[in-house]
Structures are given as C-alpha cells and as structure tokens.
UniProtKB/TrEMBL annotation:
It comes from Geodia barretti (Barrett's horny sponge). Keywords: Endonuclease, Hydrolase, Nuclease, Nucleus. Residues 32-103 form the XPG-I domain. It is found in: Nucleus. This is Flap endonuclease GEN homolog 1.
C-alpha cells in the first residue's frame, strides 16, 4: 500500500521524505540561529502557504506542485534555479490565469477533479460521460462529479 509506505514506490517516497525532513530540520536550525521566525505546518504545507499568500501574509508560494492555486494562493513561483550566472524563477498569478484563460479558483478545482490531481490521480470523468466545453460551468460539473462519485462509493 503506497499510503503506508509499503512496496517499492512506498520505500522510494519514504526515503525522499526522510531526506526532505532532514533538510527541513537543518533549515529550521539555521533560521533559529539567525532569529528568523518560521511556521512548521502540521498538515499539508502547500495549503498553509497558500492561505498565508491569500491573506496577504506572504508574497507568494514557492513550489513545483500545482495545488497551491486550488488552496487559494494568488501568486505561485515555480522552477527556481539558483545559478551564479542567472538565477531564474517562473511567476504565475491568479489574475493572469483569470485574464488569459477565463478560469477562477472554483474552475481550477473542478478541472483538477475532472482531469486528475494529487488526491484523485485518475480524475473523476466517470465512464467519459462529461464533455467540458467553454460554455459549461466547471463548478457545476465538479459538484455533479463529486455527488456521483460519492453515491458510487456508497
């Protein structure tokens, strides 16, 4: 079972988490030494960072994951590369997403449910019965999919 860390993939994920946790602990020790305040999330760090960004307590969320906008982030920085010659980072904003794609947060959540995301990798297009078009309400489709998915589980 992947969630319990069993099997080959579970071992790989557990190994990465151990390395990541060691790195996080070192960073926290450094921040403590410098007197810099920080927050350690008890749950999904992506969600906490997104809330901090949404409420204006953080300028953005630095991540390579795509869940931040679903959690409410307004600015996401991705693909940070720190080279001496030319450090780079890509910046995405909800404002740009809304202006260029005409999608809001609810639409992104619906698309994540339909197409797949961290918590529902296969997506919820049950028997391919839904066709999403530009005139379709993504929020209504997501609500319908969640309802059908819940009923099928019962």
């Amino acid at each position: 079972d992947k969630r319990e860390g069993r099997g080959e993939e579970g071992r790989r994920r557990t190994g990465r988490r151990t390395i990541l946790q060691s790195y996080v602990n070192e960073c926290c020790n450094l921040l403590d030494s410098l007197g810099v305040p920080y927050i350690r999330s008890k749950g999904e760090a992506e969600a906490l960072c997104s809330i901090l960004n949404y409420t204006g307590m953080a300028d953005g969320v630095l991540t390579n994951d795509s869940d931040s906008f679903l959690y409410g982030a307004t600015t996401v920085y991705r693909d940070l590369h720190t080279t001496e010659r030319s450090p780079t980072v890509e910046c995405y904003t909800m404002k740009d997403i809304h202006e260029k794609l005409a999608l809001n947060r609810s639409d992104l959540i619906a698309l994540a449910l339909l197409l797949g995301c961290d918590y529902c990798p296969q997506g919820m297009l049950i028997h391919n019965t839904y066709t999403v078009t530009g005139t379709c309400s993504y929020s209504l489709v997501a609500y319908t999919c969640v309802y059908i998915y819940t009923v099928e589980l019962l």
